[in-house]
Amino acid sequence: MRLEDYWGIGPKTSETLVEALGTERAVEAIESADVRALSDAGLQRGRATRILRRANGKAGMDVLATGDARAVYDELLSLAAEYALTAHAGDRIRVLTPLTDREAIEDRLTEVMTARDAWEGLSETERDRVVEAFRAYDEAGATDRAAVEAAITLREAGLSGEAFDTLAALDVDALRDAVGALGGVRGSLGDAANVGSGDPTEATIATGADEELDRRRERLEAARGLENAAFDVIDAVRDGSARDFEAFRAGVVEHLASETGIEPATIRSAAPDDALDAADFVSGTLRELVSELEADVTEREEAVAETLQARLAEAGEDVTRAVEAVSANAVHLSLGRFAAEHDLRRPRFVDDGIAVRNARNLFITGDVQPVTYGIGTHGLADVPDLSGTERPPSGDRVSVLTGANSGGKTTLLETLCAVALLASMGLPVPAEEAEVGTFDRVVFHRRHASFNAGVLESTLKSVVPPLVEEGRTLMLVDEFEAITEPGRAADLLNGLVELTVERDALGVYVTHLAEDLSPLPDAARIDGIFAEGLNNDLELRVDYQPRYGTIGKSTPEFIVSRLVANATDRGVRGGFEHLAAAVGEEAVQRTLSDARWSPDDD
């Protein structure tokens, strides 16, 4: 396959990859979603990630029908990647895409939930050991030895479950023996893929692997250090008052033995018999000595390599499995860690609906009010809720969500989008219960601040085409009135609701124009979010849980009440009091009175 056949790779990018990796290795990196290889080759990490997402999950990426849906997708994977235990695991998480096969979705969910249970089953000490093992593995460059050491630690931590079956099957004793052998050799012999078949002459034996080899190497380096200093040796020996050439020869042998630790007999055997003078004798001796010592080192290296190779061959399969298991389990355990930290639960899959009970928005921190909501056909309407929250009706195709400013309507759309996307990727969701259908497209459209024909046109072009395509679409659209005049926005919203029902899609549309809408189709309903007043700090108190079948109120008297209370300038205060009379002075006064005592005081 040509590199340019992959999405996002043009002639220049192809040339960059071929120059750095070669065509075969570049294709392998793309097919295996190796972000690191592409970024090391010169691509920006973000670009490499986008290329790999399309290369490995194009059909799934088509689910993200709008820029806002893609933004939520990016935020979700960035958040999940924060819990990655290795750099490679983080890269693998960032290139996850929605899956189009239900069985594949269920399989990944099972792996992640097993990993979540395993992570939660570890003590704090065991978790620290696991994190440290993966950190050491990363810092060592993901070598085979580091992988084996990490695998031993993971086994000792007691990780269990189907996702860790490969890990559980490893022979720990064999791996422990392999650690020493892997630590003693570098090169092809130390590559798990070549264990048992490497050429010993291609291996580099590490210092400390064999005492005799270390001794021979030290003597060789000492001899090499003197090889280019023959005249220094001559001067040192002559300073010893050598009387004749025989005495000089003996002095040279004694001096070299003292400086290098090499046995005198070895030095004498290397000395030439036909040297012309002192310089020729010393140079010839050192040259032959270095040659003999190099042969000794090579011979010992080959012998040690064969011994290490034999030890590695006995653990070859376990080493290979350990390398694969550590890489795979780093991804599973990272996702399990993410799920545990955010209390993510396994969703149930339905044919046609999306419903959540006590769902949370992952992008909001702090103490947040969970929300129960749903559209389409689902089973949450039939199950009693012990918390007292009303269950979402089942069967409606569309809901029109109304209510107070800052009432969490957009946040609810974002939460539903996140739930749909996480479930489509085979990941658990932030809700105590969730039922999620299979969607060919998710259309999420946030409110735009601009008000002009260009924004209206671009908005309609982004939300209508996915709605009329074949397959099932989830529409999550925020405040149409922000992009055109209110009267026409109501007409457009009516048309979108009717089109959504007609196309058998599901939709949640946020608006302040519910009272201006024409009668909705039978398969649509209106829900409302209500502000309940101001607290002692004059902040808006909102019940973020929508009330089904009820139009929410924006309650401007609460905002005007806050402005009246905060005004320090008499003239400005008078202006706000004039507005208070316009929206209902009695309501404003009641709000100010209530703000002096609220349920928050108890």
TrEMBL record:
This is DNA mismatch repair protein, MutS family. The keyword Ubl conjugation does not apply. Residues 396-570 form the DNA mismatch repair proteins mutS family domain. It comes from Halorubrum vacuolatum. Pfam families: MutS_V. The keyword ATP-binding applies. Keywords: ATP-binding, DNA-binding, Nucleotide-binding. One of its GO terms (molecular function) is mismatched DNA binding. One of its GO terms (biological process) is mismatch repair.
